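During the no-cost extension, the postdoctoral fellow (Dr. R.K.) reprocessed legacy sequence entries with the updated structure-token encoder. One reprocessed record is reproduced below for audit purposes.
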Amino acid sequence: MSKTPNLKVAEPIGDVQGAARADAAALRAVRKSHKLSDVCYDIRGPVLQRAKQMEDEGHRVTKLNIGNLAHFGFEAPEEIVVDVIHNLRDAAGYSDSKGLFSARKAVMHYTQQKKIAGVGIEDIYIGNGASELIVMSMQALLNNGDEVLVPAPDYPLWTAAVSLGGGAPVHYVCDEQAGWLPDLDDIRRKLTPNTRAIVIINPNNPTGALYPAEFLRELVEIARQHQLIVFADEIYDKVLYDGETHTSIASLAEDVLCVTFNGLSKNYRACGYRAGWMIVSGEKRHARDYIEGLDMLASMRLCANVPAQWGIQTALGGYQSIEELIAPDGRLTRQRDLAYELITQIPGVSCVKPKAALYLFPKLDLKMYPIEDDQQFILKLLEAEKVLLVQGSGFNWQQPDHFRLVFLPHEEDLRDAVGRVARFLDNYRKGLHRS
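Re-encoded structure tokens follow.
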């Protein structure tokens, strides 16, 4: 006698769906890491998301929030493009974890031009932009409770990288009345036994300040006395106006451990190539363990993208077309001058004229513009005039009275954009008067 197989009776579809909903309701929420709780990057933050939504709705938004040179018609030098294309067939495999020999050799020669002593091939790391290397340098160094002095205002990746690495960013003030130079007394006041390092952004983003050599020597002396590592962000070291020259702080600090960052993004208008480098110089004997940590992290990511590395030697050793852009009649100089003229004509707006980089960091008179939340202020500007800026608090500035403006658009577009900012501020003042 044959046996009837045990067949599972199918549950009604409605019951299955109901059970699935019940299971979903019982699932634990997936939350971001606590390590991200103090991490902020408002250059591409909530206001940008609103700008993207407006673009999806059909609005044309003028984006003055980020120094993305290609977006405004600044092209990477042709010889770099050709070199990258020519070497693509040799770029399919991994490179050394620190980077191609030719790229690091070119960076080594550049350190000699900058008078940074004692740098060898093994002291140079190529990264996917300086940004990757900044994060890596903090992860290799910091333990919970370690403090790093970071400027205010700063490029916010630095504050984020310190927090993500488990450290505590401690912001020292840059003095607007002194042309945005760091306040040395404030730095001294904020030193503690837990302070491991100081970050110097020179030329500065967002203020456009350029630190003279004699001032850098004072910073070096503080680092020397307190055994601090100097992290020097010099990504704009060729974007200089009015005949100014740049001094690498590492060239003044042979007995202090320095880690210097640079890359192709700004000087060579190749942001998307993601080709940057990090140089370890100065007194390295006591830092062998830290350097071993850097080597370990460099190896873990295998290597930086190889195609862009092939452009580094050509960039550093070839014709420096940035000189044309920063000449007295060059496009960047003209646009800086125009943006400065237009923004400072607006009632209640002042600005230190930048000596370097790609930005203005204007100040609003809070008596005329009593702002409490600068992010909401910038959001209202975006929605009213379709111009996207970044609020000062996005650069860890404590008062709601500054914003950063990128002066990369062509002059006609710059006039239009700053004109819309002026109209918004005029309406803002009139609205306060009516209320």
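The chain has 15 helices and 15 strands. The longest strand covers residues 168-175. The remaining legacy entries will be reprocessed before the final report is submitted.
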